[in-house]
Amino acid sequence: MSSSPYLKKVLDNGITIVAEKIDTVQSIALGMFVHSGVIYEVDKMHGVSHFIEHMLFKGTVKRSAKKIASEFDRIGGVLNAFTSKDFCCYYARVVKDKLEKAIDVLGDMIMNSQFPQDEIERERRVIMEEIKMYEDSPDEIIHELLGQNIWKKARLGRPILGTKRTVGAMTRDDIYEVFETQYVTENLLICIAGNFDWDKLCSLIDRKLKNMRKGSFNHKLQKIKPSSDASVYVKNMEQVHLTLGTEGVSFSDDRRFALTILNAALGGGMSSRLFQEVREKRGLAYTVYSYHTSLANTGLFGIYAGTSMNQLPMVLEVCRKEMEKFKDKGISTRELNATREQLEGNMLLGLESMTNRMNRLSMGFLYNVEPLAPEDTLAPYLAVTTDEVNKLAQDLLDEKRLAITIIAPTADIGPILEQSGYSKRKIEILKAERIEQ
């Protein structure tokens, strides 16, 4: 393995900086990451991390919400943010000579956001509309519902946006208390990828964020036992949305490299087994794919398909048979090599994006895994053997382990599961209104 090309420094106040210098580009991607998200939220504050993300764009001591937006528009930069299950990221992309402006604005947002009451009420309404929009997109919300099914009553299974009840009840003091607890120096990682001077960068961040609240954010991760139940949400619509899922592997588990190969071969692209069998050969669905997400101490592997009610039994049966075939016969050397080639192309294209490279740097802070040098990125995937993929498939693709979540116009799903060859399992029938709680 090559020596790490990454630059790293911990400032005196506890802020960590990790950077990758690339002299051949004219841009810089900058991200500020904090441990936050639903896995750290108490029941009554469900959705507060996402609420805080919105509020950081609503004004500081010296900048209004409009000024935050206009300063980035004026320099032709990009400013945005997102909240995941276990972290929040505020990021910018600018040309290299506008880096100081990006750090100044982002640092001001992180340190000095004011949370004015009128903006809280306005943004509360915005988030309520965001929740409604999400609920009206069954192909998106089905994945949250699968997580709720797999991780029953656990924080990890909760939707990132929160619920109408919790978002509607949060007070300004409640929200600001969480902000003060989480947005502290030792809970902040700043990642940069692009064309910069390292010494000037560190000096600039030290100067701009020297007055940030000092402290650490103590957090514990729950160890959750996954379920293999079926949940059916009854909603009047034309299409049925189906997910099959189980606990995957964590980001610190080296089996994630084999799982990436398995996922790509099973349902990760147009040449994958599921796409070919479900869509191309039988025309049973427009969209069908598999996916995997790794988190700090767990992961989620899932399969999604959207189909009509009369074709649901066949889609279920084909998915089951393809999983059984993969589990019993495994992946061939030829398929393994083809999948590696596909991943190589995807990864090399991804490395051309400064934003992708910036996000890669955050993994050490978020998941305690040292990021690989770009030239070494492919090595763990190239080292995966057919035996490793097949061993993982035998465990992961066991039909009895799968939780099943369906949004359908009828509750009569039990007979369809049995008809399609699935083992008996607990089936919970839920009304559409439960999606919106």
Model description:
- This protein has helices at 48-55, 65-74, 99-112, 117-135, 138-150, 164-169, 172-182, 198-208, 255-267, 273-281, 312-329, 333-350, 354-361, 363-367, 379-382, 386-396, 414-419, and strands at residues 7-10, 16-21, 27-35, 78-83, 87-95, 188-194, 230-234, 239-247, 287-294, 299-308, 403-408, 427-431.
- With 437 residues, it is of the alpha+beta class.
- The chain folds into two domains: 7-208, Cytochrome Bc1 Complex, Chain A, domain 1 (2-Layer Sandwich), CATH 3.30.830.10; 230-436, Cytochrome Bc1 Complex, Chain A, domain 1, CATH 3.30.830.
- A six-stranded mixed sheet has the order 1-2-6-3-5-4.
- The radius of gyration is 23 Å and the shape is globular.
- The model has no long low-confidence stretch (mean pLDDT 93).
Give a concise summary.
This protein has 437 residues and is of the alpha+beta class.
